[in-house]
Structure of FACT complex subunit SSRP1:
Amino acid sequence: DGRLRLSRQGVIFKNSKTGKVDNIQASELAEGVWRRVALGHGLKLLTKNGHVYKYDGFRESEFDKLSEFFKAHYRLELAERDLCVKGWNWGTVRFGGQLLSFDIGEQPVFEIPLSNVSQCTTGKNEVTLEFHQNDDAEVSLMEVRFYVPPTQEDGVDPVEAFAQNVLSKADVIQATGDAICIFRELQCLTPRGRYDIRIYPTFLHLHGKTFDYKIPYTTVLRLFLLPHKDQRQMFFVISLDPPIKQGQTRYHFLILLFSKDEDISLTLNMNEEEVEKRFEGRLTKNMSGSLYEMVSRVMKALVNRKITVPGNFQGHSGAQCITCSYKASSGLLYPLERGFIYVHKPPVHIRFDEISFVNFARGTTTTRSFDFEIETKQGTQYTFSSIEREEYGKLFDFVNAKKLNIKNRGLKEGMKQSYDEYADSDEDQHDAYLERMKEEGKIREENANDSSDGSGEETDESFNPGEEDDDVAEEFDSNASASSSSGDGNSDRDEKKPAKKAKIVKERKPRKKQLESKKGKDPNAPKRPMSAYMLWLNANRERIKSDHPGISITDLSKKAGELWKAMSKEKKEEWDRKAEDARKDYEKAMKEYGMGSKSESSRAERSKKKKKKQEKQMKGKAEKKGATSKSSSSTKSPAKSMSESFKSKEFVSSDESSSGESKKEDSEEEGVASLPPSSEDSASGSD
């Protein structure tokens, strides 16, 4: 796919995938043919030097317009010729320029551009053509075999004549003559291995232990020289179109890795006059310097293309690249002046003019990193993941400066917002869940220490039984009456219990206070009014975020403080008035709330007094009954069991000499609600 532009000067076609440009001057055009092809209609252009260009995808209605344009500006008749569709496989072969045409009668059946032929082999009455693989097609034609019948003419072998015609125009490189220079044992990342690079006048020869590659300079699209992040190595990247192939693998990029410390002295296999004439001062016969400099200098002179280096981008660490992962392999992403290049596995080059939009996304595995997504106009998506979040600001500024579309810019839950979320999600003070877990951990530790001190049980380092004891202690705290006086059968158990109970009593008082304080807070009570500063901050928070994309919550607070401090007195007065209005509204609401709560509190007090009166009456009856009854311990009076029922389990001590009066006082302090004797006994029995 690409764009075809016809002008008075000539025809220009730009490949939208690779960016390669075909430029045909109007003076070079020899013939123009219009014909019906598989996809609509096609245009075939032949030049005077034998090159053929074919473009498909035209509509039938466009013929008249093109024909008139060719007549007016190129002085060419656009001829209409149809292909033969009889389906015959017997015909004649005609060689014309760079094209092999198989004809039946006067009509062509198919044409083969000989520049696509990678190999030509002969057999008995047979010629086999092998082709370069087409990367843009799902299925590629790899070979065609022609049967050539023997002729009666002596001295001329038709098979050899056919092969020679093909080879004279085919893209089959044969190493003839001496190399200009040789670089030995260079480290190559793709294709992987150590290769000798022989530099010939028209092509590059990679000679390895297993494979050989011949790369014509015409297939070199771009050259890149990229510094490694460690500042000790250099990548030299050669972009190829069409790529070199090994079996089913295609290498679009040739990547060489050099150490900056390696030096070389180079002598070109040419005399000084030839060097001067050929390279016009760009190279000299004898050169010396860093190995990467020499290779890049020779390649630049022979290929006649500029070497692309990183621009003014600098990452968080000061390097000109960003460490990231692409397709599960870690590598380096280089933001260039006109595109991005990723090395090294697999290498990717994306030009800015083919980018539809970019996207900053939250990291999938951890919040300490983010993903950088690029979608091209063809719909291909590239995701560079695991980029350190410190690189976000630098990369965002770079993308912004290059005026690339950012997919989630401007949305409320967009990039800036989402980045703020994960930018600060690691900070302890804002993580509510983490705070809660820490608090629970502290409580567990305290309870575990208390229970292990009191019980005297053995503890293990890797497994802490104190945590289980903690659960038991909580049961005692929350339901003291249910766990009272569980029987006098085991004296050892009774001796151990008081120590535990004494501990639990200490913990219980603050817990009661906590419950009371919580009960004291009324959810219906009016909320306190905000200060002038907080009202201003709430109104301006989004504006500050939009002015400073990617700003963290802590930095946002600092920035807001600075802005508030710098604000004029007149502007502050406006917010002071708003705060004063909010305070008056609050006071008014509190008065209304207070009137309602007073009536409720008076009702509660009356019910409390009534309960206390009932308790005193019950106590008095119990004391009277206790004075009159003098029966044995086996037949205990209900009064005695009643008085015992007031003794909370927490206050039963191991010392039997404690007076009854002090026990009564303890039970009164504790304020245990009186229960009927039967229910109390049944509760203790069930324990």
Summary: The mean pLDDT is 75. The radius of gyration is 46 Å. The domain at 181-308 is CATH 2.30.29.150 (PH-domain like).
